Amino acid sequence: MLTIGLDDGVQLVYLAEGAANVVYRIRSLPLDPSTSADLSFESYGPNTPPPTELEPLHMDPRLEGNLVRLRKNTSSTTPVAESQNHFETVIKPLFPSENLVQQTLFQPSKYLLKDCNARLREMEFNGARPPKRHNFYLAEDDMYGMLVTDMSCNDDSSKFFEFKPKWLTQSPSAPPESKRCRTCALRAMKKGSKPGLCPLNLMDKDRITIAVCRIMGLDHHRLQVYSGSDRDMLGRIRDFLLKDPLLRRLRQLQMDKDPKGVLRANIISQDLLAAMTLRDCTLYLKVSPSSIDARLGDLDLKTGKGKAEYWRGLEKQLIEGGWYTATERERTVGENLCQLA
Question: DSSP label at 190?
């Protein structure tokens, strides 16, 4: 198994983080780190090349095209090996390999994890880490990390988008007279101030343009003010999502794995846990001039430890509070933009 340590000629560069993991870009170090930039040099002779011309160390080919993802030490995260086993045995058989962000285990050294945590603390001190992520650090006792497919773009000719499809069909527990889908109901209850993506629009050929505008950050009421390239990109993504079977496959699996809803389902069944995983994944789109690469990621195992009761409690709140039916007593922020409205 691949191992990565501080002396392996690579550097992990902070890229992003969520509640459960931190993601790093992998960068090769120069041949001789001691010759890194001395900006006081006025010029560089033939025997002292500028740092930008130093050849990188050979990078293990298994690292190429990947990012590093490391688990945080929180009560809600699952050990990496257990999460990877769930991915291999439950998630991977459900989709073609080209539709998944691939995951591979590796072993980080203890010193690498300590160094990453020290850098996270330094980022907090310098104001470079999101405040809501402060005081949560990597699990230094986890023996494994993950290499995941790098979906970012390396040149200006390609564009990258990501979004969570969430619940692509209505919750089986929702009242029949609902005016909001599950995702829009939860957003209203949380007083979301920004118009959000209604997942049902992704599955409707007459309303998918509204959904793609949300994904791209465009106002669908003012499409005429955007550039021709923006409108062309909008059309390409819309046509791709309509023709490609991935979202329809995801919706069908959500229904198959949880046909009864969280209030009636066996809350520790593997099918329900898989359904909830599929309702919280991310779709990554890399749009190049000639193709669109679409992959699902963030497919971490949802465990029954405390989650099941949380899901049930949330569903009861949405039903009893009138959030599905838009009869809530509390004043919501913004208009109801759900397809069911």
Answer: T
Strand ranges, E, within the chain? 3-4, 10-17, 21-28, 66-71, 103-108, 145-149, 159-163, 282-287, 292-297
Take residue 86 and report the two structure tokens written for it: 């769930």
pLDDT at 302: 80
Which residues are registered as beta bridge partners of 295? 284
Spatial CB neighbours of 152, under 8 Å, sequence gap ≥ 6:
160, 286
- Dist. CA 199–CA 182, nearest whole Å: 9
Query: Which residues make beta-bridge pairs with 287?
Result: 159, 292
pTM for this predicted structure: 0.86
Averaged over 156-169, what is the pLDDT? 94
Question: CA 31 to CA 55: how far, in whole Å?
Answer: 6
CA distance 146 to 154: 21
84: number of Cβ within 10 Å: 18
Span 289-340, pLDDT tens digits:
999 999 999 998 887 657 888 999 999 999 999 999 999 987 766 666 799 9
- The model's pLDDT over 281-294, given as tens digits with 9 standing for 90+, comes to 999 999 999 999 99
Give the torsion through C-alpha atoms of 182, 188, 190, 192, to 10 deg: 120
How far apart (Å, rounded) are the C-alpha atoms in residues 128 and 214?
Answer: 27
Q: Is the pLDDT of residue 48 over 70?
A: no
The predicted pLDDT at position 43 comes to 41
- CA-CA distances (angstroms) from residue 13 to 26, 123, 139, 245? 6, 12, 18, 35
Q: What percent of the chain is modeled with pLDDT above 70?
A: 88
Q: How confident is the model over 219-233, as a mean pLDDT?
A: 92
Q: Are 265 and 272 in contact (CB under 8 A)?
A: yes
- Residue 14's beta-bridge partner residues? 24
